[in-house]
Write a structure and sequence with these properties.
15 helices; 5-stranded parallel beta sheet; about 375 residues; alpha/beta
Length: about 375
């Protein structure tokens, strides 16, 4: 039997709830922890951090059978990419490896770890015998979202009654969002001294648009650009939405977990899609906004990371040296080519991009099936 696993998925999808439920169902003592908790111990010096990590597993051994849950494990970077802090992180990761390995007495202890993105985890953490079993916990489907919402409402509204809301919210909102929506809707109904209605749920899930028409149109053009470049590359996003997210006016989500292998052409497509929003703003509106850059999670940052990794980590550049340094001129040249490709695609499908943007303003969220039908109706093809 597996004694450890890695839970991967967006924020709010229930990774912590899942770990606690596993412990509860199996009768295991639950010991949640994280690097942040270790760091808070004592004065935060190396000895304090390592001692707190050790205490977690000591408590688990004393209470076994136990489940140790390490949240936000992606706080620990690869030991080879930690820069000036490499010695610090090497010690932390090596210490955790000894506990996960079982050399310190793992019998009777299940270890689950969770993160939003496992791409930067140290290879040693996820090798066989450690966190080698990867469980994807994604955003709920329409059916699942309706069930979660109905559950949080205590069954006051059936899943059938919530199907419409769930269809619009799926792929955009998480299980945690469902809990918030149910809370807000019940508060509205309680103040009105009546039962919860579907209208209460819709008002809580999709609050009234407060952005100005010009701002909303620019965001719609931007997101339509991402989606159009994806469709023209043979990629069908899971959703495109104008529903706001933290630090974002909207989003286009693409599920890449189904790839059997990632080729150089796949990475180029990913970067080109990331640049599609900026390209659409330039072609349709005449100039880009700051929406495509400025933060570590921005479109430009994402495209840059993809291109740099392609040239270095994956050997799709002039050198086969792993983790070598990419020439900034090479990175920029490739980004400029991919951006030109995105502009060319948007220019070729200018009318379709505008139509898609208007549809986004009208519907606020388009599902994968909506986007597939749009591509077929407008003959968008690779």
């Amino acid at each position: 039997m597996s004694a450890s696993a890695l839970l991967v998925g967006p924020p709010g999808t229930g990774k912590t709830t899942f770990a606690a439920a596993v412990a509860g169902d199996l009768g295991l003592a639950f010991h949640p922890t994280s690097y942040a908790a270790w760091q808070r111990a004592g004065d935060g010096h190396m000895g304090d951090v390592m001692a707190e990590m050790s205490r977690v597993f000591e408590r688990a051994r004393a209470a076994k059978p136990s489940l140790v849950f390490i949240d936000e494990i992606d706080s620990l970077p690869r030991r080879t990419s930690a820069g000036r802090s490499a010695d610090w992180w090497r010690t932390i990761v090596n210490g955790l490896l000894t506990f996960i390995d079982g050399t310190s007495g793992r019998e009777g202890i299940v270890v689950l770890a969770a993160c939003n993105d496992d791409a930067g985890l140290d290879d040693a953490l996820v090798r066989a015998g450690r966190l080698d079993r990867r469980l994807e916990i994604g955003l709920p489907s329409p059916v699942d979202f309706a069930s979660i919402l109905s559950g949080h409402l205590g069954g006051e509204l059936s899943t059938a009654a919530l199907a419409g809301v769930a269809s619009s919210a799926a792929g955009t909102l998480s299980g945690a969002d469902a809990a918030r929506i149910a809370r807000d809707a019940r508060r509205t109904a309680r103040r009105a001294r009546r039962a919860v209605t579907v209208a209460d749920i819709e008002a809580a899930a999709f609050p009234a648009e407060e952005r100005t028409a010009p701002a909303l149109w620019r965001i719609a053009v931007h997101e339509a650009g991402h989606a159009l470049v994806a469709l023209a590359s043979g990629v069908f996003p899971v959703r495109a939405t104008l529903l706001t997210a933290p630090r974002s006016g909207g989003s286009v989500y693409i599920d890449e977990t189904g790839r059997d292998a990632t080729l150089a052409s796949d990475l180029a497509t990913d970067a080109r899609i990331a640049l599609g929003g900026r390209a659409a703003e330039v072609v349709l509106l005449g100039a880009p906004s700051t929406g495509s850059g400025g933060s570590a999670s921005s479109d430009l940052a994402l495209a840059t990371r993809i291109v740099r990794a392609s040239l270095t980590l994956y050997g799709f550049g002039p050198s086969l040296e792993h983790s070598g340094k990419a020439d900034p001129a090479d990175v920029d040249a490739r980004l400029q080519r991919l951006y030109s490709d995105a502009v060319e695609t948007i220019s070729a499908y200018r009318d379709e991009t505008e139509t898609l943007a208007r549809l986004l303003v009208e519907r606020r969220t388009l599902t994968q099936s909506d986007l597939q039908r749009f591509a077929e109706a407008h003959d968008i093809r690779v």
